[in-house]
C-alpha cells in the first residue's frame, strides 16, 4: 500500500512551515510593541497557514488507493 502525495510540494511545505513559525512568533511581539489590536491579524494568518499544513498532512497520510476511489 502506497501513501498518497499531498497537494504541496516539499519546497512549498517548507515555505508554509517557515511562514507559520514567523507569523506565530511575530504576533506576541506585535502585541507587546503596538497599542492597537493589529497583532490579531498575525494570529489569523498563522491559523490559516496551519490549516493548509494540516490538510496536506491528512492527504499525505491517506492510502493512495483510497484517493483513486474518489
The termini sit apart by: 17 Å
Q: Strand-residue fraction?
A: under 5%
Q: What is the radius of gyration computed over CA atoms, rounded to a whole number of angstroms?
A: 16 Å
- How many helix segments? 3
Order of helices and strands: HHH
Structural class: mainly alpha
Helix share, percent: over 70%
Quick tags:
mainly alpha, 70 residues, single chain, elongated, 3 helices, 0% strand
Would you spell out the secondary-structure blueprint of this structure?
Blueprint: H1 10-33, H2 39-61, H3 64-68
Helix pairs in contact: 1-2
In short:
The protein is mainly alpha-helical. It contains three helices and no strands. The mean pLDDT is 87.
Descriptive report:
By secondary structure, the protein is mainly α. It has one domain (10-68). It contains three helices and no strands. It has helices at residues 10-33, 39-61, 64-68. α1 runs antiparallel to α2 (39-61). The longest helix is centred in the N-terminal third of the chain and has 24 residues, at 10-33. The chain is elongated. The mean pLDDT is 87.
Amino acid at each position: 500500500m502506497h501513501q498518497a502525495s499531498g497537494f504541496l510540494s516539499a519546497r512549498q511545505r517548507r515555505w508554509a512551515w517557515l511562514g507559520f513559525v514567523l507569523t506565530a512568533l511575530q504576533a506576541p511581539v506585535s502585541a507587546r510593541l503596538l497599542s492597537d489590536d493589529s497583532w490579531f491579524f498575525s494570529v489569523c494568518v498563522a491559523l490559516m497557514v496551519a490549516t493548509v499544513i494540516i490538510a496536506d498532512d491528512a492527504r499525505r497520510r491517506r492510502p493512495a488507493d483510497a484517493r483513486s476511489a474518489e
